[in-house]
Amino acid sequence: MRRYSIAQESRIGSRPVNQDRATWLATDDAVLLVVADGMGGHLQGEVAAQLAIDTIGERFRREAQPRLANPGRFLAEALRQAHQGIVRHGKDCRIPAHAAPRTTCIACVVQDGLAVWAHAGDSRLYLVHDKGNGAQRVLKTRDHSVVQRLVDEGTLSDEQAARHPMRNRVFSCLGGDIEPHIEISTPVPLQDGDLIALCTDGAWSPLGESLAAELVRAPLTASVPHLLDVAERAAGTSADNLTLIAMRWEAPNPDGDTLQLERDDALAAPTPSVSDDEIERAVAEIRSRVSHSPNGVAP
Amino acid sequence: MTTQNNSALPPGCELEAYRFERQLSAGGFSIVYLAHDPAGVPVAIKEYMPNALALRREGEITPNIPPEYQADFNHGLKLFFEEGRMLTGLDHPNVVRVLNFFRANETVYLVMRYETGQTLRDHIRQRRGRLGEAFMRTMFSGMLDGLGEVHGHGLLHLDIKPANIWLREDGNPVLLDFGAARYAVDIGSPAPRAMYTPGYAAPEQYHGKFTLGPWTDIYAVGACMYAALAGSAPQAADERMADDEVQPARQRWGMEYSPRLLATIDECLRLEPQRRPQHARALQASLNTDTAADKPPGSWLSRLGLKGW
User: Fold this and answer.
1) Do B152 and A137 count as a contact with CB atoms less than 8 A apart?
2) Which CATH number is B22's domain given?
3) How far is B80 from chain A (nearest CA, A)?
4) Do residues B199 and B152 share a domain?
5) Which of B29, B185, B207 to mutate to test the interface with A (most CBs of A within 10 A)?
6) B257 belongs to a structural domain
C-alpha cells in the first residue's frame, strides 16, 4: 500500500444539532472513507447518519482481511445494508414512514491504487488530479437531486441551481420508504498527489469550484480547516452543518476475429424516450464543449 | 433485394459545410466517412445509423425509421451522444480527437481528426502476427498512455481490440471507437448496452457488473498483444471459463520473445480480474522495464531480423 494522508473535520454551522457524520478506516491494503448527512425535516436524521457510517464501517472491518474481494460490490451491499438498518430502526421507534429517519451517503474505497465510490443523495465526492500548470482535472459525483436533474436537462444553469429553492431536495437517500438509487462508480486509478474529498452540501455548496484548487495548494491539515472556514463565512448565519474528509495519495517514487456481438436483450430492454428538445440540448452542449477545446473547429 | 447494411451517403454530399468523399468503414451502429472541412482539411465523420433500426436505400439521404423503432433509435442516439460527450473531455495524443458534433438527416454526426495509417488489425493480418518485441513494447506502451488517461476520467473503454487501435504512419497508436465506453454502473437501472467482441472481452463482461474496472480493459489489451503474436484472437473468455484452451504465451513463444513480455501477456489474460495488472500504468511499467538483462533465449528467426517493424 502506498502512503496517504487523511484529514477530516465536521462543524455544526448555525444549526442547533450536527447531523453530519464522517469516518475513515484502513487496513494494510484498503482504505474506506464515509460521509453521511442526516436529513433535516425527518426525525432522528443524526441517528440515520450514525447508523450509516457504523454499518458500513463494521462491514469493512469484517470483510477487509486485509483486502476486499470486490470493492464495488462491497460498497453496493454495505449501503443497501445501511438503508435496511435505518428503515428497521424507524419502524422499531414507530416513526411514521413520511417522517422516518433518512441520510445521504457517500463512501469510497481505495485498494490496489484504484478508487471506487458509491453514493445516494447530494453528499459529494471530488477526485482532484493536479495537472501541474495551475489546472486540475476534477471528477465529481452527480447529486441525486431534483436541481441536478434540471441542470442535466439544460433547464437550469449551475448558478441558477445554486440559488434554487429546491436545491436541498434529493430523490435518493438511505432510509425512508423509497428504495434508494445507489450509484457505483467505475474504479478510477489514482496518480501521485491525487486528492479525494468527500463532503456534505453544507461544505460544497458555499465553496463552488474553489474546493478543488484549494485542496491541491496546501497540506490537508491546513486546507481542510481553511476550506471549512471559508464555507462557514460564506454561508453566514444560515450555515448548514459542514463536513469534509480528504485524502491525498502520496506515492513513494515508483518504480483476429473482430465480429461485434450485440446481445439481443440490449435492444429489447425498455428504453427511455428521448425528446426532440433533449436531443437539441445535447447537441448544443457537445458543440459548446468542442468549441472551447484547443483544436476544435465549428465550421 | 435483401440487404443487411444501409447505404452510405453518396460521394460529394455536403452536410454542415463538410464535403463527404467516401465511406471508410461501417459497423452495426454507424458508418464512418472521409470528408473535408471548408478549409479542405480531411476529417473522419461517424454517422449514427443502426442497421437494425433504420433503413436507408441506395441514393437516399434521410433514413426511414419505422415508428415502432423510433424509441430504440433515440435511445441509441443518446448513447452516441455519450460517446461524443466523453471524448470532448479527453485531450490526449493517443486518444481519438473529436472536432465537432452536429445533427442532420434525422440522425447525428461525430467529426473526428482524420489520421492516415491503418488499424492494428490490418497490420497483424499483413504480417500474420509475430510482430517484433520492440514494436510491441513501444506501441502498447503508447496506447496504454491513452488508456490511462481514459481511466483517469472515470471511463472504461470496454471494446479494445486490434480494429479499434489505429496506427499512425510513424507507428504511434490512437485509441478509437468509444461506442461501448461507460462511466458508472448504476444499480437498479436497466442493463447497460452489452457490446463486446469475443476473444477480446474479459470474462466479467459476460456477467457481473461490479467487477468491471480498468482490469477489464487490461484483459483486452492482453488479448490484443496475444493476437499480435498469434495472428488471431485468443479463445473467447466465456469458453475459457468452461474449458481453457489458450496456450500460455510463455509456452508458445518462449524462444522468440523476452520472458518478461510473455509473462506480462499471460498476466493480462488471467481469468480472475484481481490477478491481472490492475491499471494501465502497472502494465506499462512491466512493458517499459529495461530489457537489457531480459533477452529472449534467441532463435534463428530473431537472428534473421524477421520480427522488427
Assistant:
1) yes
2) 3.30.200.20
3) 10
4) yes
5) B185
6) yes
Residue written as cell 461507460? B182
Q: Is the pLDDT of residue A254 over 60?
A: no
DSSP secondary structure string, A135-146? -EEEEEPPP-BH
- Residue B209 DSSP code: S
What distance in Å separates residue B264's CA from the closest CA in chain A? 16
Task: Identify whether B309 is part of a domain.
Answer: no
Domain boundary among B113, B139, B170: B113
Domains of chain A: 3-254+266-292 (3.60.40.10)
- The whole-angstrom separation of Cα B166 and Cα A25 is 44
Please determine, for residue B290, whether its predicted confidence score (pLDDT) is greater than 80: no
pLDDT at position A165 over 70: yes
Nearest CA in chain B to A68: B274
**B56 lies in the same domain as B131:** no
- pLDDT score for A268: 31
**Interface probe, candidates B16, B43, B70, B81, chain A, greatest A C-beta count within 10 A:** B81
Neighbours of A297 (CB within 10 A): 15
Neighboring chain A residues of B152 at a CB cutoff of 8 Å: 129, 137, 188-189, 191
Q: How far is CA A276 from the centre of its chain?
A: 31
Q: Are residues B154 and B189 in the same domain?
A: yes
Same-domain pairing of B255 and B277: yes
Q: What is the pLDDT of residues A98-127, one digit of tens each?
A: 889 999 999 999 999 999 999 999 999 999
The dihedral of CA A211, A215, A218, A219: what is its sign?
A: positive
Q: Assess whether B56 and B180 both reside in one domain.
A: no
pLDDT of residue B45: 93
The pTM of the whole model exceeds 0.80: no
Domain span at B79:
15-113
0.90 surpassed by complex ipTM: no
Residue B1 lies in a domain: no
Alpha carbon distance A296, A277 (integer Å): 24
Q: Do B77 and A185 touch (CB under 8 A)?
A: no
B129, B182 Cβ separation under 8 angstroms: no
